[in-house]
Design a protein that fits this description.
The chain is α/β, with parallel strands linked by helices and 292 residues long. The chain is built from twelve helices and ten strands.
Length: 292
């Protein structure tokens, strides 16, 4: 029975404080649903508006590549230091502890490997993403590849439909079409295709003229690191992308193949969240490396 004999009328309506009508802090998402914004807020730091995602999805194409032989040993210890973990369902389920509290960006397309022809992909079931409590779903688009462009865009569009149903942001991963130049015109086109098809995040590659790629993409862009570079060069790559307006990185090999992965992750975070210069971040890298 409800307690009815001491019902107090409200008397604190904050009449001098107008309701907050400010916009959402990430670009292009003001009209997104509450759930989608809430998930994006788990991935992107509220203060910097940026993210350092740790990518370890490479094995579904390449097998146990260097640095990913044991996800439980190579990646799980880094999880607490990343802003978001990007991987495939099998490796997350088997090798990332379930008490992990970092948001998950689930690689949601699969199909072919480096042993045959890549990018003939299909989507895994949406129930998987929901059951794994993911904060985002990622699928690749191979723009400019005559064999797989249409099917990967179709996959992506369907994934956005699913994402909108459950308020799960979808990240478009731009693969480089076989015959395409790695320039700002190509990455600008590929990123824009992701956004036009409903991406909430776009993952692409840094190139000269990247400011134009960022400007023409109405949602946050993160960059992949690409092949392993010397640490200072990788930090320069991050710095240039951030200064051109990137909203962070989704970086794999340049972290987990580094001689000191935790030090590299820490240094990348300095660039992404604190606008550290490459030299400043490299100092951080060496300090953390030498402390270990
Ligand atoms: C590419 O399809 C994969 O999604 C990788 O996660 C991506 O390339 C990022 O990794 P890396 O920094 O090693 O390029």
């Amino acid at each position: 029975m409800a307690d009815l004999d001491d019902i107090r009328d409200g008397d604190n309506f904050g009449l001098n404080t107008p309701a907050d009508t400010s916009a959402f802090y990430l670009k292009g998402l003001n009209n997104a649903s509450w759930g989608l914004k809430n998930r994006m807020s788990r991935i992107f730091n509220r203060k910097s508006g940026r993210t350092v995602m740790l990518a370890f999805d490479h094995g579904f194409l390449m097998g146990p590549t260097s640095g990913l032989e044991r996800i439980d040993l190579n990646i799980a210890p880094l999880a607490a230091h990343a802003d978001c973990l990007m991987g495939c369902r099998g490796m997350i389920r088997t090798s990332i502890p379930a008490d992990n509290t970092k948001p998950i960006c689930l690689r949601t397309d699969t199909g072919t490997t480096i042993l045959t022809e890549m990018n003939h992909n299909v989507l895994i079931s949406e129930e998987e993403a929901v059951s794994m409590n993911v904060s985002a779903m990622a699928a690749m688009l191979s723009i400019g590849d005559a064999d797989t462009e249409a099917s990967t865009i179709a996959n992506f569009s369907r994934l956005v439909d699913i994402g909108n149903k459950y308020s799960i942001p979808v990240m478009g991963v731009t693969a480089v079409g076989k015959d395409m130049a790695r320039d700002s015109r190509y990455f600008g086109l590929a990123s824009r295709v992701c956004a036009e098809n409903g991406a909430s995040i776009v993952k692409t590659y840094y190139t000269e003229g990247f400011e134009n790629v960022v400007a023409a993409c109405p949602v946050p862009i993160v960059i992949a690191g690409g092949k392993k570079l010397p640490e200072l060069e990788a930090l320069e790559l991050c710095y240039k992308a951030i200064q051109c307006g990137a909203s962070g990185v989704d970086m794999g090999r340049n972290v987990f193949q580094s001689e000191a992965p935790l030090a590299m992750m820490t240094a990348v975070k300095e660039v992404v969240h604190n606008d550290a210069t490459p030299a400043e971040a490299f100092d951080v890298y060496n300090t953390v490396k030498n402390e270990a």
